[in-house]
Amino acid sequence: MTFSTFEADHRSSQKRARLPRLLASRGFQKWAARFPLTRGIVRREGEAMFDLLAGFCHSQVLSALVQLKVPQVLMDGPRRAEDLGEKLDVPTDRMHILLRAGVALGLLRRRRGGRYGLSRTGAALVGVPGLSQMIAHHEVLYRDLSDPVAFFRGEVQTELANFWPYVFGGNMDPEQAATYSDLMMQSQLLVAEDTLAAVDLRGVRHMMDVGGGSGAFLAAVGERYPGIELTLFDLPQVAPLAQQRFNAAGLAQRSNIVSGSFRDDELPKGADAISLIRVLYDHADETVGDLLAQCYAALPDGGRLVISEPMTGGDTPNRPGDAYFALYTMAMRTGRTRSAYEISTLCHAAGFSDVRAIKGTRPFVTSCVVARKI
């Protein structure tokens, strides 16, 4: 680097440092709030900052509505706050506040005669599979984040890690297995829908879903592709729960359940496609590398690997991946949310070629990486 280049970089750095100081100064803020060309920007930025500040209150309004089952009650038609308060054992004055907050957040609508009904978004709380269960489950994550500084310093023994003991290779009792599988089943219905919209499985003869839980993804595959043979591989306490789903879907003759742990057992061979649906972000890089190597070894030449899970934005951080799922996986204390580039790099290291990232239509649900063994 020449001296003149160093001087130019130094001056540029000084300019970049002065700009935040100018924007933060009270004098500039007062001027910008009055000046016609900038006051709209100031207002919008202030509203955005306030939304961040009030976000926890908003999420608690959502949680209260879900836990009280207000959306389910309103599916039968609009109700007055007095009626809802009596039915749900909430004082009328407080129910008014909760319902008005629901209106402000776009979850409810005010009707004639002081009644409250569902908005389209509020109706989705009832209709979207697993959404209400996931919202109710978040009380665990909120407790883990109650001291955010301690959380980011790694000083919190998070409850969320205890909710998912399988991640650490631990055993689940039957009640834990049922709770885990129900939550995973509900959430994976949406994941399956978005994954199959993004990934074309034509030409696949036999698909194995590793960590497939109660079989929600494989059941969706079987329904979409009638000719595909299905194998589910998961922990002994979890995998048998899929049998009922396969039977109900008429897939018993095309499906096979193999109990095991990819940490300790080799993956079965015979499938020409393997899916990992919301699996990698539960685990550290070393575990993920070993699993991808196992997938590579289990697949024949030309075999496909389908990875589907929420991902970070990489060089362009996004809210779902970087400001939500990254914290969720941190609270689990074992895995981490990765970008499509990071996952692709791990796939290449395991031996896969022709690795492609496919951005999901709803990144807050899932995105995909597809790789081939060539």
Give a written overview of the molecule.
The chain has 374 residues and is an alpha/beta fold. It has two domains: 35-127, Arc Repressor Mutant, subunit A (Orthogonal Bundle); 144-372, Vaccinia Virus protein VP39 (Rossmann fold). The protein contains 16 helices and ten strands. Strand 4, helix 12 (216-224) and strand 5 (229-234) form a beta-alpha-beta unit.
Give the arrangement of secondary structure elements.
Layout: H1 3-24, H2 26-34, H3 39-67, H4 70-74, E1 79-80, H5 81-88, H6 92-104, E2 108-110, E3 115-118, H7 120-127, H8 131-144, H9 148-152, H10 160-163, H11 174-198, E4 206-210, H12 216-224, E5 229-234, H13 241-248, E6 255-259, E7 273-277, H14 285-298, E8 304-309, H15 319-332, H16 340-350, E9 353-358, E10 367-372
Parallel strand pairs: 4-5, 4-7, 5-6, 7-8
Antiparallel strand pairs: 1-3, 2-3, 8-10, 9-10
Helix pairs in contact: 2-3, 3-6, 3-8, 5-6, 11-12, 14-16
- The string of secondary-structure elements, in order, is HHHHEHHEEHHHHHEHEHEEHEHHEE
- Identify the CATH homologous superfamily of the largest domain: Vaccinia Virus protein VP39
Could you tell me the mean pLDDT?
A: 87
Stretches with pLDDT under 50, minimum 5 residues = none
Our estimate of the beta-strand percent is 5-15%
Architecture per CATH nomenclature, i.e. the level-2 architecture of the largest domain: 3-Layer(aba) Sandwich
Number of helices: 16
Instruction: Give a count of the beta strands, DSSP E runs of length 2 or more.
Output: 10
**CATH topology label of the largest domain:** Rossmann fold
* Strand-pairing-aware structural class: alpha/beta
Instruction: Give, in spatial order, the strands making up the sheet with the most strands.
Output: 6-5-4-7-8-10-9
CATH first level of the largest domain: Alpha Beta
